[in-house]
What we know:
The chain has helices spanning 4-26, 36-40, 69-75, 87-96, 102-114, 120-128, 135-145, 151-157, 166-192, 206-214, 220-232, 241-251, 256-267, 275-290, 296-308, 326-338, 343-362, 373-382, 391-412, 425-433, and strands spanning 54-57, 61-64. It is an all-alpha fold. A two-stranded antiparallel ribbon has the order 1-2. Helix 11 (220-232) crosses helix 19. This is Citrate synthase.
Amino acid sequence: SVSLKERLAELIPAEIENVKATRAEHGKKAFGPVVVDQLYGGMRGLPALIWDGSVLDAEEGIRFRGKTIPECQALLPKAPGGSEPLPEALFWLLVTGEVPTQEQVTELSKDWAARSAIPEFVEEILDRCPPTLHPMSQFSLAVTALNHDSAFAKAYQAGVSKKEYWGPTFEDSMDLIAKLPNIAGRIYRNVFGQGKLPAIDPSKDYSHNLATLLGFGENHGFVELLRLYLTIHSDHEGGNVSAHTGKLVGSALSDPFLAYGAALNGLAGPLHGLANQEVLIWLRKMQAKIGEDASDEAVKEYIWSTLKAGQVVPGYGHAVLRKTDPRYTAQREFALKHLPEDKLFKLVGQIYNLVPDILLEAGKAKNPWPNVDAHSGVLLTYYGLDQMQFYTVLFGVSRAFGVAAQLIWDRALGAPLERPKSYSTAAIQKIFKDK
Ligand code: AMX
C-alpha cells in the first residue's frame, strides 16, 4: 500500500506477538546492573526504556531501524534532482522498519501538505507573542495549543477501546508533523520581520515547503541542507531529554500535541537542543575577541578561557557517544561539498582539531568529541539563516518525527504509564546500613 496507516495496520498484530514472545523468553532476565551512582548520576547508562525507531551505539553512533546515516543516505528515496534523503522516507522507516518506495514517500509528502494548515487561533497566539519571547517558547505554546483538535483526546472522551488507541494517535502524529512548518515559518517571520507567510505547495516535499516558508525556497542548496538536517536530527534513541519527555508524557495518555509540547521544552535547554544556538554564539564571541583568521594558539587560549570560566564548550561531549557523532560527520561532508571555502566552516574544522585534546587534558568530559550541534549552525548561517535563536526550532521540527513514531507504537503495543521508583538519600543510607 502507498498509505502509511494501512501499512502500519498490517504490521501491528505481528509486532504485538513479537513483543509477547520477547517478554516470554527474556522478561525475567536481569539486564545490566544498577548502582547507587546511577540514581544520583542522571540515570546514565541505565537500561529502562523501549524505543524502536533507533538505537545509539557509543562508538558507532545512531542507527535508524538498524541503518547507519550513510546507509540511509544511500537507500532512502530522494527528491527529483536532489541527492539528500527525504525526511518523509526516514519517517516511514522509523514507523515501519521498511525502506519506502518513491511512491510511498510522494504520498506522504502530499498527505502532510494536505494536513498543514494551523487553526486561526494558533496563528493569533503566535502573532501576539512579543518578538522577545524565545522562538522555542513560542513553538511549544503553539504545539500545545494544537491539542484543541486532538483526535486522540476526542476519541478518549468518547470511550475508545485501548486496542484502538493507535489510530487517533497516528492521526494526531501526522497532523503534528504536518503543521510544524506553518508554525516554524510563522515564528521565523514574526520574530525576524520577514513578511507574510506563503502557502504550502502540495506538489513539493516537506523540506522544500519548509524552506519556502522560511524564505529560502528558491535556494536549492538550502533545500538540500534541510532534507539532510531534518533526516539526521529526527531520532537519537529514547533516553535523551526530548525523546524521553515525549514518551513519558504520552504514557499518561496525554495526546501527541501535549506530549510533544513537553518534549520541546526539554529540547530548549542549553545542554540539549539549544546547544546549536550556543555554538554559534560562542563562535561569534570568539571571532569578536580574536579575529577571523586566528592562529591555533589564540583559539586554544579562547577554549581554555571558556573552561576556566566554568562554562562548557558547546557542541562537544555527549551522555552516550564516545566518538565523533556521525551526524557531525554527515554535516561536515555536506560542507566539504557545498561550502569548502567558508570561513566559519574552516573555524569549525580548526576547533575540531583543538577541542578534543583540551577537553582530555582538562580531564572531566567523558567524551571529548563533537556532537551534532557543533556543526549545524554554520551550515544554516552560510545560506543566510543567521538568526541563531531560531536554530533549535528546526531541531524541534525534526525531532517530532522520532517522538511521533514511538508514540504511535507505544499506543499500538499498550505501553503502560511510566512510573520508575525513586529513593531519598536517607532511604538509601538506611537500605545499606547493615549490609
Ligand atoms: N565542555 C566542558 N565540560 C564538559 C563538556 C564540554 N563540552 N562535556 C562534559 N563536560 C563536563 C561536564 O560538565 C561534567 O562536569 P562536572 O563533573 O563538573 O559536572 C563532566 O565533564 C562529566 O560530564 P560527562 O559525563 O562527560 O557528560 P554528561 O553525560 O553529564 O553530559 C553533555 C553530556 C552533552 C550535557 C555535556 O557533554 C555538555 O554539557 N556538552 C556541551 C553542551 C552540548 O553540546 N550539548 C548538546 C548535546 C547533544 C544534544 O543533546 N543535542
